[in-house]
Amino acid sequence: MNNPLRLSTVILPVRRWHDGGRDQWQRAEELGFHTAYTYDHLSWRTFRDGPWFGAVPTLTAAAAATSRLRLGTLVTSPNFRHPVTLAKELISLDDISDGRVTLGIGAGGNGFDATALGQEPWSPRERADRFGEFVPLLDRLLTEDAVTHQGTHYSADEARNIPGCVQRPRLPFAVAATGPRGLKLAARHGQAWVTTGDPKISKTGTPEQSLTAIQGQIEKLEKACTDIGRDVNDLDKILLTGFTPEGGRPLESLEAFVDFAGRHRALGFTEIALHAPIPDSDFAADQKVFEQIATEALGRLG
Question: How many CB atoms are closer than 10 A to CB 153?
């Protein structure tokens, strides 16, 4: 296959805006990345005891500091979000950025976000139930002037969202999913699908096993699309790197990344997202190599 491929980056919100934070987003635009995403968490993994800023204010500041770069979350989840308030923030962000926002959205997990509001962690079934209600309601809130909804988990009473998104009919959803219910949501509501690979083999599997597992995910996505009469090629396919068995090795050299990207492009991916380097962390990498990949890799892939 010779699918078109875009490179994007993920900038974790760990730096103060006036102490290098703004510079990272502006540099991402200078390097030609398609989109710069950030994680939408209250805190996250090994970064829990250090600086961590909010996703929507960070993206709003990034929108004002850039002019071409697309911006997004990778990903937002229902863990601490409500569709009504999230829709209002997204419409505002889409307006401030002049239509440069993509919402990456997933079901969430059992990390710190799951208990920060004082609740017990949801079971996998409840997370799936909530996600299944959250996404369609958010879709309506972003496309209709007034929405009333009484659901099991979420409600809205004449929630007003005028004038709506700059992007029509709404800003795009990139739905992160690997299970059957999530893939159905991606097929019905997504403009893109996101995967990190198969978490069951991320630490113990081989790159070949990972490719096979991801191919299986894509086949399930294709079936979910076929079931509703949609062409799976209508969806962009985004790989968030760093969680397959290769870990950070694709960022060790331009050649390593070109090999990695080529193998995943052959599966049908249209976008690969790389974490911007963070020293002394799981995302440590050589900044010069990272920038070389950003500027030269697509040319090498042809």
Answer: 16
